[in-house]
Specification:
By secondary structure, the protein is mainly α. The chain has a domain of about 140 residues: Tetracycline Repressor, domain 2 (Orthogonal Bundle), CATH 1.10.357. About 75% of the residues lie in helices and about 0% in strands. Helix 1 crosses helix 4, helix 5 packs antiparallel against helix 9 and helix 7 crosses helix 8. It is elongated.
Amino acid sequence: MGRPKGPARDTRSLILAHAFDLFSTAGYRAVTVKDIAAAVGIKDASLYNYFPSKQQLFDEVLGRERDYARATLAAATRPFRPTGKGPVADGGAFQDLVIDAIEPLFADERLLALRRLLTVTQFESEEADQLYQELFIDLLQGYFRSLLDSVVAARVLDQCNTVTAAAELHGVLFVLLAQNKRWSEARPRAMAYIRAFERNHSS
């Protein structure tokens, strides 16, 4: 059986969207099927025509938002390429790449909602806990390590343990993220820290 088409598909999309909004605000346990159905404007029984259980609906919400987050973060994380204009310009390129990588975490409304959802449900759901670890810790630290490997090889930064340095870079930026600041406020603070990080790792 293929995916539903027309009004049925629209209703299914509405259910997923409203469920995501509710789960990201109150968490999995606090949200009922009745809450979701009311938000969509359908009867409780009608919702079960699209999703057999609240758990299956939650799993599909997570899957949809996981795919969106992976694609968004992948698009924001670009490799380092020397500018050919010397270490100062290369250092600026490094700073820009870090800023570009973290901007969606502060500015993308769907990623902000997903982080809220995973934060409130990570102790209720092993899948949510694993996804939080993947998207907001492992993925970013992995990118920072790859980026640092490149800038160290290009002699923009001094030789260092890039695993430790990536964790250091991620740690302070993650604290900033946890403060729930808007990007307009977070960006200058992040840039100041990245510049300090670069100075501390340069001769």
